[in-house]
Design goal:
Elements lengths: L6 H4 L5 H4 L3 H51 L7 E9 L2 E11 L6 E8 L5 E9 L9 H11 L1
Antiparallel strand pairs: 1-2, 2-3, 3-4
Subcellular location: Cell inner membrane
Protein name: Type II secretion system protein I
Main location: membrane
Length: about 150
Amino acid sequence: MEPFVSSADRRGLRCAAEHGFTLIEIMVALAVFSLAVLALIRLETATARGASILDETLVANLVARNVAVDAVSEGRVPTLGMSSGIEVNAGRSWTWQRGVYPTGNPAIVRIEVAVRGPSGNVDGRATMVRPPDREPDPAIAPATNAAATAT
């Protein structure tokens, strides 16, 4: 006895199940693919935002450090209290606020700097301690003056 063969099979046509994907399968695959793409776009946005915040924080910390180093390296001890100003760095304006506070030794001061970015948030901080001014060494001072007069 011969197995049942349909007229479509006799003409060489295959069943729809063997032909390819159904419309529902393609729609489900597209839905899964679109969800994956949306997740990747969100990840890229979060990464770009994180890089921007990191860049802003890095430059703000550099500005804070520069302001603190300026105060430490001045010729005389900065006056106690608060001062503020604006620095331009990396093409942006940064508002800084510097506080000079006493320590246990009157010749030593603590310098704290806070820097605000364009958003108005404190993005960078630096703290430094200014050591006491050195007294000129009497053994070195006359030798320097004698060398200057000899030339």
